[in-house]
Amino acid sequence: MATDHPAGSATQQLNDHFDDHQPFSLSPITLQKLPHLSEYLQDLQPAGPNPLDRNPFFYPSDGFYITSSDVVLRHTVCRLSPSGAPDYPFHHVAYIRAGPRKNIFFDPSTTRAAIVTCGGLCPGMNTVIRELVVGLWDLYGVRQIFGIKAGYRGFYSTPPVELSPKMVHNWHMRGGTVLGTSRGGFDLKKIVDAIQNHGFNQVYIIGGDGTMRGAVKIFEEVQRRKLRIGVTGIPKTVDNDVGIIDRSFGFQTAVEMAQQAIHAAHVEAESAVNGIGLVKLMGRSTGHITLHATLSSRDVDCCLIPETEFYLEGKGGLFEFLEQRLKERGHAVVVVAEGAGQDLIPRTKAQEEERDESGNRVFLDVGAWLKSELKKWWDRDHPNELFTVKYIDPTYMIRAVPANATDNLYCTLVAHSAIHGVMAGHTGFVTGPINGNHAYIPLIDVAQAKNAVSTKDHKWEWVRSVTNQPDFVKS
Ligand SMILES: Nc1ncnc2c1ncn2[C@@H]1O[C@H](COP(=O)(O)OP(=O)(O)O)[C@@H](O)[C@H]1O
Ligand SMILES: O=P(O)(O)OC[C@H]1O[C@](O)(COP(=O)(O)O)[C@@H](O)[C@@H]1O
Ligand SMILES: [Mg+2]
Questions:
Q1: By alpha-carbon position, which residue is closest to atom 5 of ligand 1?
Q2: Most buried of 51, 130, 357, 404 (most Cβ within 10 A)?
Q3: Phi/psi at 420 (nearest 5 deg)?
Q4: Which long-range contacts (C-beta less than 8 Å, at least 24 apart) are formed by 219-225?
Q5: ipTM, 2 decimals?
Q6: CA-CA distance, 23 to 26, in Å (whole number)?
Q7: Given CA atoms 235, 240, 243, 244 in this order, what sign does their dihedral have?
Q8: Is the dihedral angle over the CA atoms 274, 256, 433, 168 positive or is it negative?
Q9: Cα 118-120-123 angle, rounded to 5 deg
C-alpha cells in the first residue's frame, strides 16, 4: 500500500499493524435530534437574520454560524479496528454543536425571557444569570428579561423581577443566587399557566438533576399546549451528578475550596498525637468532588465515596488501615463524601423515610458518625494512648463562594450558547461541554443520564495507588 508516512513513523506502524487492504472503520454515528419549535408549530417562520450580522463587535465570516451539520461526538476516545470487527464504543453518538445560527426565530422586540434558579447553591449561578441578561441584551437586543424569585415556586407565587445589564453588572462577584432558590414547589400546571400569563416566550432554567427532570415536564407541557415558548436547561451541579456533560460550572471552584478544608485537617492531624483529620465533602450519590480533591491534595490517606462500599472492623477494614497509618506516620487524613457509608449508619424508621422538599433522601451525617466510631474504636483498643479526631464539614463554605476564573468563563460560554440555541428556535435542550466543546443535548437525555464515578477505570485506581487504601473487598 502506498503511504505518505515515513517508514518507522507512528502512523506507518499503526497501518502495518492492520491488514493493508482493510481501511480503519469507525462505528456508525447517530445524531441526537434536537427539538425545534417548528416541529409542533407548523406555520412558524424565521423572524429574520441573526442580529450579530449588524453587531459592531462581530464580523460574521464563512463558518461563523453553526449549522445543524456541525456536531460534537460524545466519545472522542475509541478503539480503531479493521473493518467489520466491532470497535469501542459500538455506536457513536453525536450532538449538535452549540453556537449562533444564521437565522433566528424570535423577534428581539417581542421576546420576553424568564430566568430561574432551582436546587442547592453552586458557585457561578449569579454569573450565569448575569451572562444571560447581558447576552440577551447585547447580542440580540432583547429588552424584556425577568428573574423568577426562589425557584420553581416563584413562577406562580411572586412577581417576576425585571433585569437589565446595569442591575446585574457585578453579580459574578457574588456567591449564591441573587434571584433566590428553593427545593420543592414544582406544580406543573401552575408553572406553565404562569409562564403563559406573564407572556414569557423564552424560559432559562438553571438547576441540577432534579431541576432538569422538572424542566422536561415543563417542555412537554408547553409542547402539548402548542405554545411558542423555548425552554432550555443549564445544568448546575456542584456534585457533578448530571450525565453526558463534562462537568458543571462551579465544580472546579468546589474542588479548589475543598483543598483548604483538607489542608486544615492535615495540619490539625499532623500537630496531634495519633491525630486523624476527617473532612466531609458534598456528593449525595457521587464522589466526584471527594475524588478530585483527594487527587489534587496528595495529603489524603483514605477517600470514601458513595460508589464503593467500605467497612470499619476486621481484616481489610478502615480501622486496621488507620492503625497502620498512625503507626507509620503518626497522623492520617480521611475524606468522605456525604453519601458514602449511609447504609452503615444505624437509623430509625422515621430517619429512613425522611425526604427533603424536592423528594431527595435526607442523609445522616457520615462525618459525625465516623468521628464517633473512630473514638469508640480507639478507646476500646488503645485505652491509654492519646488520640484525636478533628472533623471538618465545609459544605456550605464550599458552595457559597463566587466562581473561580475558569468556572466564570464556563458560565459565559454556557449562557451564550443557551441564548443562541433558543433564539434559533431550539427548545427542550440543555447546553454543556462534551469533551470540551459546547453542545446542545436533548433535555430528556440529560434528565435521565447519571454521572457516577466509575470505580472500574484508571481514576479510581489512581486514587487507590495514591492513598494505598484498602479496596474494602471482604475476602
Ligand atoms: N422528578 C421531578 N419532577 C419535577 N420536578 C422536580 C423533580 N425532581 C425535582 N424537581 C424540582 O426541581 C427543583 C430542584 O430539585 P432538587 O432536587 O432540590 O435540586 P437539584 O435540581 O439541584 O438537583 C425543586 O423545585 C424540585 O421540586
Ligand atoms: O442543605 P441543602 O440546601 O438541602 O443542600 C444539600 C445538598 O445540596 C448539594 O450541595 C447540591 O445538591 P443539588 O445539586 O441536588 O442541589 C448536595 O451536595 C447536598 O446534599
Ligand atoms: Mg440534585
A1: 214
A2: 130
A3: -55, -45
A4: 219/35, 219/427, 219/428, 219/443, 220/428, 221/188, 221/189, 221/192, 222/192, 222/195, 222/427, 223/35, 223/40, 223/427, 223/428, 225/192, 225/196
A5: 0.99
A6: 10
A7: positive
A8: positive
A9: 100
Does 239 participate in catalysis according to the annotation?
yes
Please give the grid coordinates belonging to residue 56. 459592531
Question: Does the beta carbon of 52 sit less than 6 angstroms from any atom of ligand 1?
Answer: no
Side chain identity, residue 155:
F
For residue 416, the CA-to-ligand 3 centroid distance in Å is 24
Q: What angle do CA 198, 230, 405 make, to 5 degrees?
A: 100
Q: Is 69 exposed, middle or buried (0-12, 13-18, 19+ CB in 10 A)?
A: exposed
Q: Is 119 in the pocket of ligand 2 (CB under 6 A)?
A: yes
pLDDT of 19 > 70? The answer is no
Residue 348 phi, psi (nearest 5): -80, 170
Distances (CA, A) of 212 to 119, 209, 236, 371: 10, 5, 10, 36
Q: Give the integer Cα–Cα distance in Å for 83 and 92.
A: 15
Q: How confident is the model at residue 2 (pLDDT cuts 50, 70, 90)?
A: very low
Q: What is the DSSP letter of 352?
A: H
What is the sign of the dihedral through the CA atoms of 233, 239, 243 and 249? Answer: positive
- pTM recorded for the entire structure: 0.94
Atom of ligand 2 nearest to the CA of 119: 16
